TrEMBL record, chains A, B, C, D:
<feature type="binding site">
    <location>
        <position position="113"/>
    </location>
    <ligand>
        <name>substrate</name>
    </ligand>
</feature>
<protein>
    <recommendedName>
        <fullName>Glutaminase</fullName>
        <ecNumber>3.5.1.2</ecNumber>
    </recommendedName>
</protein>
<feature type="binding site">
    <location>
        <position position="258"/>
    </location>
    <ligand>
        <name>substrate</name>
    </ligand>
</feature>
<dbReference type="Pfam" id="PF04960">
    <property type="entry name" value="Glutaminase"/>
</dbReference>
<dbReference type="GO" id="GO:0004359">
    <property type="term" value="F:glutaminase activity"/>
</dbReference>
<feature type="binding site">
    <location>
        <position position="63"/>
    </location>
    <ligand>
        <name>substrate</name>
    </ligand>
</feature>
<feature type="binding site">
    <location>
        <position position="157"/>
    </location>
    <ligand>
        <name>substrate</name>
    </ligand>
</feature>
<feature type="binding site">
    <location>
        <position position="188"/>
    </location>
    <ligand>
        <name>substrate</name>
    </ligand>
</feature>
<comment type="subunit">
    <text>Homotetramer.</text>
</comment>
<feature type="binding site">
    <location>
        <position position="164"/>
    </location>
    <ligand>
        <name>substrate</name>
    </ligand>
</feature>
<keyword id="KW-0007">Acetylation</keyword>
<feature type="binding site">
    <location>
        <position position="240"/>
    </location>
    <ligand>
        <name>substrate</name>
    </ligand>
</feature>
<comment type="similarity">
    <text>Belongs to the glutaminase family.</text>
</comment>
<dbReference type="InterPro" id="IPR012338">
    <property type="entry name" value="Beta-lactam/transpept-like"/>
</dbReference>
<dbReference type="InterPro" id="IPR015868">
    <property type="entry name" value="Glutaminase"/>
</dbReference>
<keyword id="KW-0378">Hydrolase</keyword>
Amino acid sequence: MEYQQILNSIYEEMSYRDVRGRVASYIPELAKVDRRKFGMHVYCGDHENYSFGDSEEKFSIQSISKVFTLAMAMRLMGEDLWDRVSVEPSGDPFNSLMQLEYEHGIPRNPFINAGALVIADILVDHLDDPKKELLDFVRKLTGNSNIDFDLKVAASEKATGYRNLALVNYIKGLGNIKGDVDKIVDFYFHQCSIEMSCHELSKAFMLFANRGRILETDEKILKRKTVKRINALMQTCGFYDEAGEFSFQVGLPGKSGVGGGIVAVHPENYSVAVWSPILNEKGNSELGMKALERLTTLTGVSVF
Amino acid sequence: MEYQQILNSIYEEMSYRDVRGRVASYIPELAKVDRRKFGMHVYCGDHENYSFGDSEEKFSIQSISKVFTLAMAMRLMGEDLWDRVSVEPSGDPFNSLMQLEYEHGIPRNPFINAGALVIADILVDHLDDPKKELLDFVRKLTGNSNIDFDLKVAASEKATGYRNLALVNYIKGLGNIKGDVDKIVDFYFHQCSIEMSCHELSKAFMLFANRGRILETDEKILKRKTVKRINALMQTCGFYDEAGEFSFQVGLPGKSGVGGGIVAVHPENYSVAVWSPILNEKGNSELGMKALERLTTLTGVSVF
Amino acid sequence: MEYQQILNSIYEEMSYRDVRGRVASYIPELAKVDRRKFGMHVYCGDHENYSFGDSEEKFSIQSISKVFTLAMAMRLMGEDLWDRVSVEPSGDPFNSLMQLEYEHGIPRNPFINAGALVIADILVDHLDDPKKELLDFVRKLTGNSNIDFDLKVAASEKATGYRNLALVNYIKGLGNIKGDVDKIVDFYFHQCSIEMSCHELSKAFMLFANRGRILETDEKILKRKTVKRINALMQTCGFYDEAGEFSFQVGLPGKSGVGGGIVAVHPENYSVAVWSPILNEKGNSELGMKALERLTTLTGVSVF
Amino acid sequence: MEYQQILNSIYEEMSYRDVRGRVASYIPELAKVDRRKFGMHVYCGDHENYSFGDSEEKFSIQSISKVFTLAMAMRLMGEDLWDRVSVEPSGDPFNSLMQLEYEHGIPRNPFINAGALVIADILVDHLDDPKKELLDFVRKLTGNSNIDFDLKVAASEKATGYRNLALVNYIKGLGNIKGDVDKIVDFYFHQCSIEMSCHELSKAFMLFANRGRILETDEKILKRKTVKRINALMQTCGFYDEAGEFSFQVGLPGKSGVGGGIVAVHPENYSVAVWSPILNEKGNSELGMKALERLTTLTGVSVF
C-alpha cells in the first residue's frame, strides 16, 4: 500500500468518538482545545508528503520541545552533557524526587521534567538569547519563520507551574542548576508553548531520520552519533510511563506531548507527526498511539 | 566485511586485560569463574555460524533465563499475562518495593526480579513439572538434550536469596502470587542456574529473530505478536539500570545475565551471544557490551 | 475524685455505640471478637485495684507483646541492643522498607514490625526455648501461671503473615537477622497471640511504673535505666501512626495492640489497661484512647 | 541540690573540648560562631534565675522560632490549624517529599520545615505585618523590646535556601500554600534569624511551663489546651531525627535549633535554655543535650 492510502485508511477507521480520554486540563489554555481535532503527516521530503485531517493546524507541542532543546544542548556540550543528566528510563513518576536526592541531583534522562529543566539551565547559561535561539533553531529545521511561542500558554504554565519551580529549586540545592531559577522556568514554559502543525513537526524531526542533516539543504546540524543517542533516548524514554507499550505498539523512536502531539522517526525513511488532543490515562494521545501503530503495521515496518 | 572477519577483529581488539570490573561475587559459585573467559557466537542458521574464543563453553545464564520463562508463560496465558505484570522500565532499583506497594503488587516488567518471580509463580501454577518443562523448552530450542541446571549454583542462590524470598512474600501479601513460596523460589533459583554456551544461547534466541519459529524445523513456538512483545521488552528493560545505554550502544533488543552473558537479536537476520564474566558497575558484562557495540557498528546495523 | 468513681463515670459516659470503627479483620480469629466488649483496669497494687466492664476477660494482646520481648532482650543485651535497632519514631508506614534499605537493615524502633522481628531474632538466638521463656516472663510479672498463647490466633497469623515474612527475609538479606527465618516468625506470631485480661496486663506493666521491680515482691527485673528507655520508647513510638495524638490526649507512655488493648503507665503511681476491640482508622482502640484521655484529665495527671 | 549548684557542677564537668561535632556551616553567618560558647539559664520567675557561662549572649535561635510561630498560628486558627498540618513524628528526613505527595500536601508536623512553611503561610495570610507581629510577640513574652532579626543571617539563609523554596512550591502545587511564595520564604528566613540569649529564651518559654500565661503579669496568651498540644508536639517532634533519644535522655518537652540552642520546659516548674554551637551528627547541640540530661538527672525530674 502507498503511504497516502494507508493514511486514508487510518483516517477512515479512527475517530475521536471511539476514544474516551480527556483533553489535558492542567492549564486552562490547553483545556480549550477542540477534542475533535485529528491530523497526521508523514514527511519523506519536501516533494513527498502524505497527510490527513488537521495536519496543517498548529497546536501546543509541549514536551516534544524537549527533543529540540536536547539537540541544542548536545551541540553546545557534546558528550559532556551526560555529566549533568543521565540516559536511563525513570520508572514511575513518584520516584523522581527520591531519585534526585540519591543520585545527587542528576536527573534520570532529559525527557522527564527534571532533566528538561537541567537542559534549560544549560541553554540559558550558554546562550545570549535562548528563547530567540530556540525559535531560530526550529524555524531553520522547518524552513518556516512564523513558528512562535503561544504567550498565553506560556503565561498559563507559569501561573500553575509550582511543581517545576519546586524541581528547579530542589536541583539547585543539590548543585546541578547553575543559573537563575526564574530565567530557567521562564525559558522552560516558553519552550513548551511553541505551536507547530503536524506538517511542521514531521519536517523538523526529519533531522533525526536523516543522520543529523537537513534533508533539503544537506546542512549538517548534528553529529551522526548525537542523532543515534537522541533516537535511542526517544525509544526508551519518550513516552512518560508508557515507553514500553509504545516500543511494542509502534516500534519506532518517538516523543509525545501533553498537547496531544506525537512525533516518531523511521531512520533513513521518514518522520511522522500525529495530533489528537484526547489523552489516555498515561498522558499520551490515544488516537495518536493507535494511528502510529496502524502506520507501522500497514507499512510492515517495525524494529522488532 | 564478513561476520567472521568482524568477529576476528573484535577478538583481536579486545581483552579481559582492558577492563577493570569484577566477576559477580554475590554467590560463591559464580565468584569462581575464570575472569579471562571470552567468547562470542553469531547464529544465522545451523550451517551459518560465526564465533570466537570460549563460545562453546557453558556458563551460568542467570537472568537470561527470564526470557525463556516469559516465553513459556505467554504460551500459557497469552495477553492475559499483562494483568499480572506490567511492560514498562522500572527506573532505579531502590523504588521496586515502593512501586509494588503503590501498584498493588504488579511488578513493572517481567525482567526485574519481582516480575520474574510472578512469572515463576505462573509456571509453577500451570505446569506439572515446571523445572523439567523449562529444560525441555530450552533443549528443544537448541536441539541439545544435555542442557541442564547447575545444582551447586542453584543451592548457592538459595542459601543467600533472602531478598528474593522477601519479594515473593511481599507480593503474596499483596495478592499477586498464588502458589507456595518455597516452590516458586526453588524454581526461580533453578532457572537462573541453567548452563549454556554462547553457541547454544544464540541458537535458542534465534526464535526471537525468526518470528517465533525454530529456524531449522520451521516449527511455530510463539505467535508473531508475542515475539514482537518480547523483543520490545528486551529493548526497553533487558539491561537492569543500563537499558538506555545498551539501546544507544548496540541498538538491538537483548538480555544480559550476571554470569556475564548477553544475548541480542537482529530480527530477520541473526541472533548473537557473547560471554565475559567481568561486570561493569551496573552488573552487565563489560566486554560483552563493547563486543556487541563493535558488531553492530561494523555490520552497519542499528535500529537508529 | 477517687479512681473507682472516675472509672465509673467513664463507663457510664462511653459506649461501643458511639464509635464507628471496625474490629480488626486481617486475620479471621480477631474478626470474631464481640465489638461490644469494653473493660478497664487501674492497678496500684494487689490490694488497690479499680476496674469496670470486661476487665477480667482475656483478649489477644498483639503488639503489646512487643514491650515484653523488648524488656527480655534488654535483659540479655543491655545497651548493646541499640546496635541492632534504633530508638526513633518511624513516620508514615510507607517508608519502612525504604528506611531499612538506607539504614542498613536497622529498624527505626522496636515497636514497628521490623524492629519487633529483630528483637524476636535476638530472643530466638539467645534462649533455648524462647516461647516458654516468654510465657514464664509474663506469668512471673502477673503471678498468673495460666497465661498462654492462643494457638488458633498464632496459626491464623502465620497463614496470612506474608508481609512479616518479607520483612524478616529482607532484613536477613541486609545482615541484621542471624537466625532461621521460620523460627523467628513462628516465635513472633506466638508472641502476638498471647491472651491476657486488662487486670493481668495492668499488673504486668506495673513493672514499668515501679522502676523495674515487681511491686508485690520487690524483685528487681529491669535496671532503672532500662525502664526509663522503654517508657521513653512507649511515649514516642507506642501508637503506630498516632503517637503524637496519644501523647497529646493522654500524656502517658503506652502501647496499643490491634486486638483493641491499650496499656499505659504513670510512673510511681499506677499502670492501666483498657480494652475495646473497635479500632479507629489508625489501628488503635477508639474507646480505649478516649477512656485514657478521660482518666488523665479527671485525675489531673499529664506530663504536659 | 539547689539549681545553681547543679548548674555550677554541669559547667565544671562539661567543656567544648570534650565534644567533636561541628558548628553549623550551611550558611556562612552561622559558621562564624565561636565554638567555645557555652551558656545555660533556668528560669523560674524574674526573681528566680539560675545560669552559667554565656547565658546572656544572643545567638541565632533558628528552628526554636517554630514554636513561637506555631503559638501565633494557634491563636489565629485554634484547632482548625490541624487541617493544614498534622501532629505526628516524621521519621527519617528522606521521606518528607514522598510523604507530602501521598498525604496531599499536609506536612507531618509543624516542626519539620514543610510544616513550619505552612505555618508561615498562615501568618503571612492573616497578619498585616507578620515580621513585626512576630517580634512583638517575642518581645512581649520576654519583656525585652530589643529582640530582633539578624538581617545578615536572614539574607544568608535566603541566598542558599533552595530546598525551602522547593518545598513551598511543591506544597503550593498540592494546594496547601495560599500566599505568595517569596513573601512566605522571606518571613521564614527572618523568623529563623531571630537572636536571643538563653536568659531571654527561657523566660519566653515559661509560657509553656505556666499554662499559657505570662508568669510576671499573669496575662493569658494561650489556652490551656493549646499549651498541652504544643508541649506534646515538642516532646514527640522537637528534635529532628533525635526525638526518641532526647525523650529518653531528658524526658522533657523541648525544641532545638541548628544555631546550637535548646529550650525545654518542666510544666509547673521551670523552663530552661542552653546554648553550645557544636552540633552532633543529628544536628542538635551536643553539649546542650548532655547538660539537659544532667539537669534532669540531678534534679530527679523526668516524666518516666
